[in-house]
Design brief:
13 strands; nine-stranded mixed sheet; 11 helices; alpha/beta; globular; four-stranded mixed sheet
């Protein structure tokens, strides 16, 4: 178990920590552990999931394989993203990784011809499902990128709502160097950076620095490595101070409106804001503003009128 995870367990004994990737249950004082051990080794779990004060942390935990997005890893991430996601206890998700590499992308061993086309299709379908889930679930997902993110790993960063990276992080779509063009990573990258930057990354496979990734819009912020986690937690805690249903409504419409033409986007945005005003939390926020006090959110979907 990673030292950072152990430290969080000690500090927050009542939280649930889940290990994803056949399950066992262990009670230690008031803590509950759930483990899905990776089938091929029955050793370390592929991911670590924890929920503390509204913040869910999902840690990619296969550093020996550079946190490759194998089918098992993708299934573990999917489980972590969707577990109890409709609960008002979950306000934001932080996606991070153990080891020097955030994620090297697909496990190339799974993409050999011996695996067969049916298995290959299963891998890419699972990957697309995870990437879409990141944007479709009702809470923001923040990538905490401490190192290299390549191919589908870069795709995962590009798919997140917010991405904060260490100044040591680098990003690449190097599939072309192995004869496998990064077509699926390109879907996410092309929606995050200008077309010519995306194509340069895809055609050359050369990595870009964290600073260049920030400049082109692939990530939200670059910070010194020793400030990375604190900066991510600062953003996550700020999101936790807002109303969950308001954030969910806003996230859902944001991704919908970018697919619309301008006039249709404004039309639906107005309708969305009218609907937003019906939420009890929204009226509480407006009332609190005039009464010069902090709002008391219910984090429910109740309508005021």
């Amino acid at each position: 178990m990673a030292q950072s995870m152990l430290r969080r367990i000690i500090l927050h004994p009542k939280k649930e920590v889940a290990y994803c990737g056949a399950a066992f249950y262990k009670n230690l004082k008031t803590s509950r552990f759930i483990s899905n051990v990776r089938p091929e080794t029955a050793a370390e779990p592929l991911t670590l999931r924890s929920d503390v004060n509204g913040i869910r942390t999902i840690v990619l935990n296969n550093p020996k394989k550079r946190n490759a997005l194998s089918l098992s890893m993708l299934e573990a991430i999917k489980t972590d993203l969707t577990h109890g996601i409709d609960s008002s206890d979950v306000h934001v998700i932080v996606l991070s990784a153990n080891g020097p590499v955030f994620s090297s992308g697909h496990d190339l061993k799974e993409l050999k011809s011996e695996a067969g086309m049916e298995y290959h299709a299963k891998v890419f379908d699972a990957c697309a499902e995870v990437m879409k889930l990141v944007q479709d679930i009702p809470v923001p997902v923040i990538a905490e990128v401490q190192g290299l993110a390549t191919a589908a790993g870069c795709q995962l960063v590009a798919s997140c709502d917010i991405a904060v990276a260490s100044e040591k992080a680098t990003f690449a779509t190097p599939g072309v160097n192995n004869g496998l063009f990064c077509s699926t990573p390109g879907v996410a990258v092309a929606r995050a950076v200008p077309r010519k930057i995306a194509l340069q990354m895809l055609f050359t496979g050369e990595p870009i620095s964290a600073q260049d990734a920030f400049l082109h819009g692939l990530i939200s912020k670059v910070v010194p490595n020793d400030h990375l986690h604190a900066e991510v937690m600062k953003i996550a805690q700020r999101i936790c101070e807002t109303s969950r249903p308001v954030i969910a409504l806003g996230k859902r419409f944001f991704y919908r409106q970018i697919l619309l033409n301008r006039d249709k986007a404004y039309e639906e945005a107005g309708q969305t804001m009218v609907g937003n005003l019906r939420l009890r939390d929204t009226q509480e926020g407006i009332k609190a503003f005039f009464e010069k006090r902090a709002p008391v959110w219910r984090h429910g979907d109740e309508k005021d009128h």
